[in-house]
């Protein structure tokens, strides 16, 4: 009985075939990392070791990794940028496009989370009224008063939509445009055409992307557009980004 049991156990035992030397060599080659190239990538592009290793192995694209890093750095640097804070700090006269198709020339005196205090000015830049408080949603765009002639010469009006419109209070109801799309235009130096809710249109290039504002270069001067006032934005050489 013991012998038969041993025979049964032996019959169930199978021996694995020895791996060929070539198989081990292929696995070793696949696991090898070109550390010289990894170090070169890290030093030249400031990459992490993990990203550099994956790029050297063909698992990541260098251009995409560098592009994403540029985008993250830009968004982090400009996330909280505000023309109102800058205006309150430098004291220079600004011209603002307001809802109800109004134009406000003013110096900003104080900025709060949702409101802006400013002193209205005449065209001679002398105060022409008492301190005013405006909700930020009332603003559509702004620029230095000195730059107003260039902005005015570049601004056009969309027929049929150049009429007074109320601000859109709820963010989910506003025009949707992603930071990724916007940065693509910056990275490509692609001119864009932006239109406000009241039909004003300007063409220029995007300089910076903030959480609430966009900085545009229009005729060589800065034009700041409030994102809540956007009705559409379109790349001149790209397809329109208007949501369907």
Order of helices and strands: HHHHHHEEEEEHEHEEEEE
What Rg is obtained from the alpha carbons, in whole angstroms? 30 Å
CATH architecture of the domain at 83-235: Roll
Main beta-sheet strand count, sense and barrel state? 11 strands, antiparallel
Given helix and strand content, the structural type is alpha+beta
Distance from first to last alpha carbon: 81 Å
Approximate shape? elongated
Mean pLDDT across all residues, rounded? 85
- Tell me the number of helical segments per DSSP (H or I, 4 or more residues long): 8
Helix percent reads 25-40%
CATH T-level fold name of the domain at 83-235: SH3 type barrels
Enumerate the spans where pLDDT stays under 50 for 5 or more consecutive residues.
1-16, 25-30, 238-244
Please write the CATH class name of the domain at 83-235: Mainly Beta
Tell me how many strands there are.
Answer: 11
Q: How much β-strand is present in the residues?
A: 25-35%
Gist?
With 244 residues, this protein is of the alpha+beta class. It has eight helices and eleven strands.
Characteristic key phrases:
eleven-stranded antiparallel β-sheet, 27% strand, disordered C terminus, SH3 type barrels, 11 strands, 244 residues, alpha+beta, elongated
Walkthrough of the structure:
There is one protein chain. This protein has 244 residues and is of the alpha+beta class. It has a domain of 153 residues: SH3 type barrels. The chain is 34% helix and 27% strand. The chain is built from eight helices and eleven strands. Strands 1, 2, 3, 4, 5, 6, 7, 8, 9, 10 and 11 form an eleven-stranded antiparallel beta sheet that branches. Strand 9 and strand 10 form a beta hairpin. Helix 3 packs across helix 4 and helix 5 packs across helix 8. The protein starts with a helix and ends in a 9-residue tail after the last strand. The N terminus and C terminus are likely disordered.
């Amino acid at each position: 009985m013991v012998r038969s049991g041993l025979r049964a156990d032996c019959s169930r035992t199978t021996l694995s075939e020895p791996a060929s030397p070539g198989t081990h060599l292929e696995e070793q080659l696949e696991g090898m990392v070109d550390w010289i190239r990894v170090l070169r990538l890290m030093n030249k592009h400031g990459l992490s070791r993990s990203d550099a290793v994956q790029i050297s192995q063909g698992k990541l694209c260098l251009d995409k990794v560098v592009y994403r890093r540029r985008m993250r750095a830009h968004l982090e640097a400009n996330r909280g940028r505000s023309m109102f804070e800058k205006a309150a700090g430098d004291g220079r006269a600004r011209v603002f496009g307001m809802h109800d198709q109004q134009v406000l020339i003013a110096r900003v005196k104080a900025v709060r989370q949702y409101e802006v205090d400013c002193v209205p000015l005449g065209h001679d830049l002398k105060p022409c009224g008492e301190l005013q408080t405006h909700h930020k949603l009332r603003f559509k765009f702004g620029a230095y008063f000195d730059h107003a002639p260039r902005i005015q010469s570049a601004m056009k009006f969309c027929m049929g939509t150049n009429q007074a419109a109320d601000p859109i209070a709820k963010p989910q109801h506003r025009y949707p445009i992603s930071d990724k799309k916007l940065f693509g235009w910056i990275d490509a130096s692609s001119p864009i055409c932006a239109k406000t809710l009241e039909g004003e249109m300007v063409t220029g290039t995007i300089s910076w992307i903030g959480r609430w504002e966009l900085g545009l270069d229009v005729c060589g001067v800065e034009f700041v557009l409030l994102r809540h006032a956007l009705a559409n934005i379109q790349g001149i050489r790209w397809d329109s980004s208007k949501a369907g």
